[in-house]
Amino acid sequence: xxxxxxxxxxxxxxxxxxxxxxxxxxxxxxxxxxxxxxxxxxxxxxxxxxxxxxxxxxxxxxxxxxxxxxxxxxxxxxxxxxxxxxxxxxxxxxxxxxxxxxxxxxxxxxxxxxxxxxxxxxxxxxxxxxxxxxxxxxxxxxxxxxxxxxxxxxxxxxxxxxxxxxxxxxxxxxxxxxxxxxxxxxxxxx
Amino acid sequence: xxxxxxxxxxxxxxxxxxxxxxxxxxxxxxxxxxxxxxxxxxxxxxxxxxxxxxxxxxxxxxxxxxxxxxxxxxxxxxxxxxxxxxxxxxxxxxxxxxxxxxxxxxxxxxxxxxxxxxxxxxxxxxxxxxxxxxxxxxxxxxxxxxxxxxxxxxxxxxxxxxxxxxxxxxxxxxxxxxxxxxxxxxxxxxxxxxxxx
Lengths: 190, 197
Description:
The complex is a heterodimer of chains A (190) and B (197).
Chain A: H1 2-42, H2 45-61, H3 72-90, H4 100-110, H5 114-132, H6 136-146, H7 152-159, H8 163-189
Helix pairs in contact in A: 1-2, 1-3, 2-3, 5-8, 6-8, 7-8
Chain B: H1 11-22, H2 30-49, H3 51-75, H4 79-85, E1 121-122, H5 142-156, H6 168-171, E2 181-182
């Protein structure tokens, strides 16, 4: 009886260790995804890191409840998105913040001048505003299609919706974005 | 209809713009911070919710729920329902059949009436019940209830010496079952003929 109990406890501990290892692998694989999803809502690096961290902590606590582990990334995206929206609602400071992190990365890559930077900031601000004005479903599709080089199939897997739905949502989202940003094109051309 | 409507902002250009604003990487400290947070979660949950404790806790909860369930089921009195379903108590009164009635008194010697046995049976028959006998609802008057309440309060406050009380246990014994009462037959002796008749 005692041996049986020991064996049972041992197997349970082993199962826990397996879970720990699996979670660590998922964490390494999905950390950037969670951060970028949070960043797409909050547009501020520190806040996005906080929210992504919260999402991983939540995912860790509920990891055993996730039956299909291959769905981890989709699960994490949904949690991060929700947490980021909650943070956004409770913390409206982000609206006055500049998107410096994104622009700095862009400057580093392209070597733009300060004048370009001002223009880039304006363009980015308007693009963010246009993205935020999208309905939530379209907004999430645009964000997921815009990070990590996700294709339609991957976005449909992350959102757990058919690929056709992703295509139509992306089409509608782009159409609305173009309508809102059309002045940018004309002013750039002029 | 498609992106060509807005010249200069093609799908590809728009996608590049979006990727550019979203192309932000977390700081190098991000992943170590997440790992530290997970480690804190693990320590916090570890001692309390490690696998053996988790299983033991679940087993304890199941046991408690089962005990409470059984106890509750036993405690629930089905009296009102059974009382409603209980068949009515039938009370029979002895009926005197015509042929067994005592004959009219006659004075003729020829038709001298014989003695007649008229059994007088008074019985209360309770119809058998299909289910178990339900406990009866005890109904007492309001003043009796108040008196009982006062009595119990006094006993609990030790204002009454309970040893002085009569033996309630024997008084509370259930009454003896009702037995059929059979009376001896009434013998009616014939009247003597009147003189001169």
